[in-house]
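TA notes. Do not distribute before section.
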Amino acid sequence: MLSSVLLQFPCKTSTRISQLSRSFFQFFKQVNICSHSASIWLPKTAMSSSEAKNQELSSPKKRAQVQPNAFVSLQITNSQVREKLKNNQKLMIENDKSISKLQVKPETFHFTLMVMKLELKSETLRTRLESTSADSHGFLESHFDLSKKALEESSKEVSKILSKLNFQFNLDKVSNFGKEVVFVTMGNEAEVIAFKEAAERVRNIFQDHGLPSTDSRSASPHVTLFKPSRGNYHIKLQPEVYQHLSAEATNCGTETFHSLQLCSMTHPKQENGYYHVIHEELLSHDSV
């Protein structure tokens, strides 16, 4: 149709119109208008900051990019178990002194059930440090209240699951994640299954309260002995660092759990060396 119209004009005029036509075509193309569609590009509807944050955390790809600052844990409190875990560290360092820089402090030994991001009142370091004794520990009241409710519900579910095992895990197996983390876990498959079930239940409860996990990977029970930190990622942890250990050495004993904790990664650690506990719920040993 356009070509038939152009034939009715002199050559110079036709050339000018043709140039204008190409310009308009490029413009319409940019706004998604074409000869076969009457649709016009419109900007996306603006979302509130909270809606944008929820959408961001709900995407598995986005979750992996969000830096967590809190985690749900089962603390290792048995002094004998801690001492045996510490002895395993010593034996491994004797076998390879280069990994001493990767040693995890025994005071922090724990199992992690999930990690998450709790919004702070302010992202400044000063607020985080000065708010440790405040009611909300420096976190937004809404996130703090939700996390408390979620932990309370989680403790009931975890109690039901762990009660089948008398709330005990026997730590008797050393393993590793790639060449980056060496840890102790349970050799008993029933205990591993129970842990994974508990972790999944906790994640679902926190998700229902609008606090999704920032890690999309399935939970794997482990008490970390060695892991890289800033400046030490070039040091690799080969399986040889622990394969020489005897079965007697790797059997670190039985841990009995008494509480479920929500801990902070960013607050200063306690005087005893363990993480700052945001909230704690006792496990019900009367659960059936």
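Switch to the second chain here.
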Amino acid sequence: MKFTAIATALLAGSSSAFVATKSPSSSSTALQANIAVFGASGLTAQECVYQALKDGDSVFGLTRNPANVVVPKGSGGADADKPIVDDKLTVIGGDVTNAADVAKVFENDIDGVIVALGGKTSDVGDSMLTDGTINIISAMKAKGVKRMAVVTSIGAGDSKDQAPFAFKILMMTVMKKIFNDKNNQEKAVEESGLEYCIVRPGGLTVDAPTGVINVIDGEAGSIPRADVAQFCLEAVKDAEFPYIGKAPCISSVGGTSWVKDRSASARGQA
């Protein structure tokens, strides 16, 4: 597997500042890797795809909606929403709950896997995250791929107390099904025996990357999807990544008093 050590963690009181050696807009000098991205048309996954390609990596994405794999708003600047055209990008149309579709990704020599699945349970079902992730784990084991980053959410697993009160209410009511799925997804990852990092971001935005990624012990603040993507890419490419086998909660702005932003602007919709 092709990895490079390009990040350090600096302890600072109740939080750790994850520091990458490259600026948000620059390309890494890392060895090129083959990265699989599941849920490739999602807003966070788009950032993973785009940034990996900018780093010179080859990307193999699986999504139900290949036409929606476009330049992200956060990192893409004036090119946002344009189709991503790159010889190193392979997009496979398929369903992560279909093991045969997942296997198509691993017909390629994959070095690291990013799982950034999403969607409303009314559209994708009550167990898509768990079922899809189990398929990915099985395919990884079959091909000897060890490293994965899985994006879930603040409030999942043992981080319930890190979610603001108003968000906890949503978790117990209108978001109960999706959080049950997220919790089962995390359990599957934790029991996989793989080299994993479960990434629990705070309030997601489509802002430009800040390059500041704080690992938070208390309530998590907001974070651009672009910064989440950078953290995920470091997780699968850095042999000495400090959060392997862990489930860090991350934010870029503040670190307290985050309120779930359900507005259209948070999803990149004017």
